[in-house]
Amino acid sequence: MSGTETNKNDPQELPRGWAWATVADVGDAELGRARHPDWHTGPEMRPYLRVANVFEDRIDATDLKEMDFSGVFEKYRLEPGDVLLNEGQSPHLVGRPAIYRGVPADVAFTNSLIRFRANTGVLQEWALLVFRRHMHFGRFMREVRITTNIAHLSATRLRTVEFPVPPTAEQHRIVDAVKAHLARLDAIEAKLHTVLGQLDRLEVAVMSAAATGLLDPDEQHASSAIPSRMGVDDGPLPDTAVGWTWKRLEDIADVVGGVTKDSKRQGDPDTPEVPYLRVANAQRARLDLTHVTKIRVAEKVVDKLRLREGDLLMAEGGDRDKLGRGWIWEDQLPDCIHQNHLFRARLRDDATHPKLLAWYVNSAARAWFESNGKQSVNLASISISKVKQLPVPTPPPESQVAAVKAGEQALARLAQLTEHCRAALAHNTVLRRALLADAFAGRLVPQDSADEPAEELLKRIRVEREAIEAEKKAIRRVARARAKADTHPTMAPPPPAHTTSAVDAIGEQATLPLEFSA
Fold first, then answer.
1. How far is residue 457 from each of residues 147, 434, 474, measured CA to CA in Å?
2. The model's pTM
3. What is the per-residue pLDDT across 103-112, written as a single tens digit (0 to 9) for each?
4. CB 175 within 8 A of CB 126
């Protein structure tokens, strides 16, 4: 195929001097070793990389697992320069690639990854760019199979994927240029993530200050105290503004648990079906209503648990640092209830404003929830009896409106800054895609007519691969003959195999699987 023609699987026209190939034409793609209980222990325990370790152009080795690789370690051992692709991942991330650069040393890989080793003349760094392009532009998605929401890209399917090949010298120029541009984009992205982290911490500080009346720096502080209660550890409480007092949650609100799903009722069409909130809906200082499921429950349960505007929802379980997280219900859905892993606090007597309570729960009270929760093997939880004992700062009635207004204004400014940062991150992603598009359109670096055309490179790769395969076949023939001679010792041994050169082995250049122009 001419370097200016298009590939049927990729409509992009290649720059002059380039050629289309497949992954199998330019290197070897192999799946890693499957994990098995029998290999959890053994004489040759080795660390291995898995899908959780491979990110885009980055390998995270902070959490390495080991298994026994007795007799097979060399087969699965990684060499510096190997490109690893995620075999199984969420659909838009399948095939996410990174280069193994020798750290950690002496490491293998499992069948959740595919290893690609390029032939001479095709840079591993160029292969990384090709695979990143395929991932970002959805090419791998045409080759995957999906099981239980996980997309799988087999090594067999990967080998058939098209692979654009520039001249080797141009590969070097493109790789160098892309690295320089990506270094700047990476630095910008790192700074944006740093700012987002600072904004997140500032948001927590603002919520805490608003919930205790101290958002105004000129406000006088008062020491905080509340009579202790058996069974809970209040720890040190934050200061409040003068005139604010502390009360237990049960003294100012009705706290109840939610509904437990009854599988028998779910198939009964006569039982009312209503939306209900789960722990996944209760995020830190917000409700995520993107996916709200429904449940069939008796009418009396709906009447008891129907959410009202101003109700605060708090997580009962999950990771320890997420206990108590949640936000206020604002009547977004009619007849909505909540599950048993969420607590509902309904304020009474105007003791405080729902936002002041919600801000406190999501900021300064996080330490209280962590101290009073209990930990099982994988999850933490907190009982409703303890949640009722939560110390809550309550303002004088005349201070509520001003405290809420000040908190809303400060948080709105932070939200605006956060939105700008996230928009900048999204734009950074667009720039990465544009950079890859320019690189593969030949617009990123100048071309050099003196470069060896990619077609010649692919012909040479083909010759070398066929010579290697011919040598392997000769070795296998000798091994079979010797095994036969050992079985029948009276037979004369076969004549020694004739070692041929690459040209002797294949003679004139055979027709290639790709069509090249003259």
1. 39, 28, 26
2. 0.78
3. 999 999 999 9
4. yes
